[in-house]
Amino acid sequence: PHMSLNGPLGMRKKVAWSKPILVGDVKAIAHLVGGTINDVLVTATAGSVRQYLLGRGDDVDGLVIHATVPVNLRAAGEDIELGNRFGLVYPALPIGVAEPLGRLHAVKEQMDTLKGSSEALMAIGVLEIMGRIPGPLERAALDLYTSKSTMVLTNVPGPRTALYYAGSPLRRIIAWAPPSGSLSMSVSIYSYAGEVTIGVAADAGVIPDPQHIVDGFHAELDALAQAVPAAVKGDTGHRSARPGAGHCLLTPATCCAAACRSDEHLGQVRHHRPRGRTAELQIMRNITPAQNGQA
Description:
The chain is of the alpha+beta class.
């Protein structure tokens, strides 16, 4: 569909990333709805894209977009060998669903369906064939594949405990998946040592402000953290009489929504609002070692 995420791509790219989000906070939301951590993170991503499109003046009523999602096809415990072994699936992101819980249920249903499908296995076969055909045909096939989606979305579980290099701890890992073909944006979710970080890579001409999408992710996670307990336990004994007040599942270090009115967060400094960073990258092509100062 025509929207602010589509447009001709250029040379300049921008990236943005979040402050860490505690995995335990996300898990608490997922546990109450019988979903997975991935369900919650994908829901927050869909919500942040929705808010971004609304901010750009796009009509999102009933809008559904598809994401290209790489799926690991290696068996658990399989010896790691060089090379890629992943398929692709194209889940529908319910951008048109305004209510956070309704969006979460739609995402969960979609993900449950994909888990039982053979779409990823079929995709890896197609990708292997594409790698063997002549260049012009390969590019045409790639364009066909990328036309099925609007963005790349990847969620990679990293090491659960901290890694060390020369005795020093590796504090954070941030990932940016390269957008494929004519896609303008990728959202990369990476978990490491009990924390999750969001990285957004975008074409600067199409999406000049990717930090807004990162900020929207935090706000959508906050909205879920407040909506889920109320839906599961009801209002009795769970919300105070003050309008908007209630229980928020997120710790103050993770919660960032300026609109959060939870009892346990009111009166605290405005939740250590996580602000990511934006960096601009200029793609440089055809630079020989001599031109690059032998770097």
